[in-house]
Amino acid sequence: MCCCGTPTINGQPTYRWQPNDKPSVRPVDPPTVNDGEVLIFDEPGRCGGLDCHSHHFRVVTWYSSWYLLVRHGGGDERIELFHRKVLGPVLDTLDSTARYWMLHAIYSAHSDGGKKARDKESHYWRTAAAEKRIKVRKIRGRDAMRVEVSA
């Protein structure tokens, strides 16, 4: 839980983890930009209503595609964003704080959608296994198997 008192961006000296701690600086820990990518936006972690010091966002372009790079406690992630001609003007009009929370909303929606899809697929296969509807057959002449769920 963040106890900064006021909205704080990583790298600023007003970060506090506990209420009794003296103010310190939470280090900036950005995701890595690969060779050939161009950095467009760099938004370090912050707080202000929600403690997101652990999430650092970067928007990079590689050829004609834009990517959202995210570093958090679980590691690094890369999410392809919509075409830059549409997204660029929208992100350009936002200030740093609004852009950070917009990128956080995009990341959260992507993460939540992935989790729901995995849960649905897992439920499908667990139900099929419990009902003994999974059929596994060897493909003749090959070192492969065909797996299907019967109705």
Strand order of the largest sheet: 1-2-3-4
The helix-and-strand class reads alpha+beta
Average predicted confidence as pLDDT:
91
Count of DSSP-assigned helices: 2
Number of domains: 1
Query: Could you list the spans in which at least 5 consecutive residues all have pLDDT below 50?
Result: none
| C-alpha geometry | elongated
Q: Determine the oligomeric state from the structure.
A: single chain
Beta-strand residue percentage: 25-35%
**Main sheet summary:** 4 strands, antiparallel
Q: End-to-end distance, in Å? A: 49 Å
Order of helices and strands: EEEEHHEE
The helicity comes to: 25-40%
Q: Write down how many β-strands occur, each being a DSSP E stretch of 2 or more residues.
A: 6
Tell me the radius of gyration: 22 Å
Task: Please explain how this structure is put together.
There is one protein chain. This protein is an alpha+beta fold. The protein has one domain. It has two helices and six strands. It has helices at 84-93, 96-130; strands spanning 38-43, 56-62, 65-72, 75-81, 134-138, 145-149. The strands form two sheets. It has a four-stranded antiparallel β-sheet, covered by helices on one side. The protein has a two-stranded antiparallel ribbon with strand order 5-6. Strand 3 (65-72) and strand 4 form a beta hairpin. The longest helix has 35 residues, at 96-130. It starts with 37 loop residues before the first strand and ends with a strand.
